[in-house]
Structure formats: C-alpha cells, structure tokens
Amino acid sequence: MKWNQIPLGPLQTNCYVMEKAEKCVIVDPGGEGDKLIQYIQTKKWQPIAILLTHAHFDHIGAVDVIRDYYQIPVYLHEKEAKWLVDAALNGSQSFTPGHPIKIKPADQMITNEFDLVLGEFHFTVLETPGHSPGSVSYYLRDEGMIFSGDVLFQQSVGRTDLRGGNEQQLLTSIHEKLLVLPEDTIVLPGHGPITNISDEMNQNPFLNGF
Prior knowledge:
By secondary structure, this protein is an alpha/beta fold. The chain has a single domain, classed as Ribonuclease Z/Hydroxyacylglutathione hydrolase-like (Metallo-beta-lactamase, Chain A, 4-Layer Sandwich). It contains seven helices and 14 strands. The protein has helices spanning about 35-45, 55-60, 65-70, 85-90, 90-95, 165-180, 195-205; strands at about 1-10, 15-20, 25, 45-50, 75, 110, 115-120, 120-125, 135-140, 145-150, 150-155, 155, 185-190, 195. The chain has a six-stranded mixed β-sheet, with helices on one face. Strands 7-8-9-10-13-14 form a six-stranded mixed β-sheet. The chain has a two-stranded antiparallel sheet with strand order 11-12. Keywords: Hydrolase, Metal-binding, Zinc. InterPro entries: MBL_Glyoxalase_II (IPR051453), Metallo-B-lactamas (IPR001279), RibonucZ/Hydroxyglut_hydro (IPR036866). It comes from Peribacillus loiseleuriae. GO terms for molecular function: hydrolase activity; metal ion binding.
C-alpha cells in the first residue's frame, strides 16, 4: 500500500491518501480541496471513500469538494453527526470567524467498533473519544499502521478543552485502545510528524504516571 501525508487547510492538518490497485481512501481532508484533487488526478487514482477521525473544522473543510467531485461516501461517528452542519459545534464559528464551515451530513454513520472493508482496504475502527466525543482511530492491522486523528501525537496528546473534550477519557482511550497495539505500529496523527507506539510508550510525557 502507498500512502502520503498532505498538510492542508488553515491549521495544516494532516490529510492522508492511501492507495492500493489504483484505488484510494482519503482521511481527514481539512481544506484546499482543489489542491487535493490535483494531487489525486496526477497520480491517476480513483477515490472510494472519505474517512473522518472526528468533525472539528480543520479536519472537514474539503469534505464536500472531494465528495461531490468523486461522488464517494463520507464516514463519521454518529456522536458528531450534527457537527458537520453546525459551525458552532465544529469550531469554525470561533476559530475562523467570518468563514463558518457547514457541510452536508455524513453518508455512513459509525455507531460502534467494527471491521470496515473498502475494496482492498481492511480497517478496524476503534472508538477513541476524549479529544472529542466521536473521535475514532482507523487501524490497518496488516499494514501495521493507525490513523489516530487528534488523539495521539508525537510526544503529545490531543487537547481536551474544546466542546465535549475529556482528559481522563482521552488518556483511557490511548492506553486501552492504542498502546495495546504492537509496539512497532506506525501512528499517523492529525498534526505533526508520524511516530510509533513504542516511542510514545517510552517518551511521551503526557502518558507518564497514568
């Protein structure tokens, strides 16, 4: 499988594009939809789905542009179903005043943890709330990698001072859902560089003493 990390939007949120057999899945298209389409077109890949780790404004800005262009479904946890259409809930009303983000509802609602098969892609969807109520992480067991959204970063963790955030819940999610994965699992976060489970177990100061 090929993948690329593409920082997009006002906060340069990491968007990820994964490819197998010329089909691709997009994780968190945060903005600059035309730039993302141009990249995909250059590769001659065919998108088949958009996966959202959560619905904060900096992760969803290009959703409608990509969805409408390729006519593909968007996956999001049901606890944040209303966030896509509500600028107050997704944070754009506060963080980008004058530029509220309101997009169409998700096509597929995630209601629990399950195995998601999209063509050649086999994900395990893990519920990892704490940064936001509906935060999920997408684990590719065969590839040894996980898309953690804003739950776990290199030597940091997601903020919990936004709507629905909960620090204890976030730490529980990290320890019970992420740190139990094989230590060589690659972590692809919503911001910053990639890392791995082993390094975060041993070096992340926010996880010490939990």
